Amino acid sequence: MATHDAASLLRSSSVDFDLDFYEALYRHYHSQPELSFQESQTAAKAASLLRSLNAGYEVQTSIGGHGLVGVLKNGAGKTVLLRADMDALPVKEDTGLEYSSKVTMRDNDDIVKPVMHACGHDFHVTALLAAAERLSKMKDSWSGTLIVLFQPNEERAGGAQAMVDDGLYDKIPVPDIVLGQHVMPRRTGYVGCRVGNIMSEADSFKITLFGRGGHGSMPHRTVDPVVMAAGVVTKLQTIVSREVDPDQFAVVTVGSIQAGQTENIISDRAELRINVRTQNHEVRNRVLASIRRVVKGECEASGATKEPLIEETTKFPLSVNDEAVTKDVHKSFEAFFGDRFDPNTPCSTASEDYSILGSCKGKPSCFWFFGGIDEKIWDDAEKQGRLAEDVPVNHSPFFAPVIQPTLSTGIDALCLAALTFLQNS
Exactly one of 34, 85, 87, 268 is catalytic; which is it? Predict the structure, then answer.
């Protein structure tokens, strides 16, 4: 199918499609989030809805945890995979929405935490289910094989690989093209994509520092891991500012420090959680080596009782949009969205694992962003130069994309991208 035909076909489509139903479904998913590894009810509802379409989707569940797929075979042609992630975050929601989450769950460390869809995965699931229905009702206009894949555990960087390791491609056809999207803190109705790097590589670590505990009144008889950790945190901040070329991108974030239980006891250890983002393998290697050097050096300078324990906890690959595939997607998006589409959107500092679904088989992928921030909120903040202050970002307890036109934009984008590669019947 010529890419401009994808846009005209979608624009002229008059299939019976109940958008109100999917708006209500989004509210349901937003109010009932589930943590990584625990997306059982999210997946079950998605599987049930796919089956209820009676459109011929072959549905398989429990792949790599709670992952599921629906495969719709519709004659000869390419095999296109559309992907959405399902998991939520351990964040206490503070949006004030009537459908806000009140959910708490036990995480993998058996700690009860509040749960929120603070990254927009509820939009991703809802949009993909809607696109699955819409495309199934347009079967007379395309041919090929459509795969809709709902992935667990994206936030902990393990879901895509877990599905592959669980024999995903022994159960379903290998796609020719993998496509995905993410709602972002940008003006609603906006769609952005780019050829090449689209999202950053990420590495996360748990670092344990070992001191010697004791009474708070006798610090001279101890090796204080809190002071040791403070030194590590301060020194880590100089890696990007003093060791990385200013023309290159890198982020080193200490997201968590834990030590001790009360004020009059000096703990015997401190635990740091560190997250690193890069967009260049050489920069990544240098930053990771510097982190190890800094941590070990500060521990030695502080008289640590033993070597620090540095454990990798998660890793996201660098997400790279294939040039040929992405240029075809761009043509469809430009024809449909017009000036609401940006083909040169900046590479995101965030990270994703969706590309593993294609790279594990040497297949190309394309990923894009769609905005979710209310037009007035965005425009007012932009006019006042207060985007950073007034527009909540992903993972914020205030992140609340406006339902429309955000949801419609996400549905349209998925359908357009799929139709770009599914041939005419």
Answer: 87
Q: Which two tokens stand for residue 337?
A: 């969205």
Residue 263 annotated among the catalytic residues of the structure: no
* Measured distance between the N- and C-terminal CA atoms of the chain, rounded to whole angstroms: 10
Side-chain-facing half-sphere of 409: CA atoms under 13 Å = 28
d(CA 271, CA 308): 10
Query: Which candidate, 10, 135, 124, places its Cα nearest to that of 77?
Result: 135
| Calpha distance 150→65 (Å, rounded) | 11
Could you tell me which of 357, 285, 353, 267 has the C-alpha nearest to residue 318? 353
- Catalytic position from the list 154, 176, 201, 352: 154
Residue 13 — pLDDT band, cuts 50, 70, 90? confident
CB atoms within 10 A of CB 275: 17
Confidence band (pLDDT; 50, 70, 90) for 340?
A: very high
Q: Is 311 helix (H, G, I), strand (E, B) or coil?
A: strand
Active-site annotation holds for 307? no
Query: Which tokens hold the place of 43?
Result: 């997946």
DSSP conformation letters of 144-204: EEEEEEEES-TTTT-HHHHHHHTTHHHHSPPPSEEEEEEEEEEETT-EE--SEEEE-EEEE
Phi, psi angle pair for 230, to nearest 5°: -60, -40
Strands 67-74 vs 144-151: parallel, antiparallel or unpaired: antiparallel
How far apart are alpha carbons 220 and 313 in whole angstroms? 34
- What pTM does this model have? 0.92
- 43: pLDDT strictly greater than 90: yes
* 196: enclosing H helix or E strand: strand 196-199
- The strand pair at 79-85 and 177-187 is best described as parallel
- Look over the chain and give the mean of its residue pLDDT values, rounded to a whole number: 96
Helices (H) and strands (E) in the chain, counts: 13, 18
Give yes or no for residue 395 having a pLDDT over 50: yes
DSSP 261: S
User: Residue 168: what pLDDT?
Assistant: 98
Reported confidence tier of residue 1, pLDDT bands at 50, 70, 90:
very low
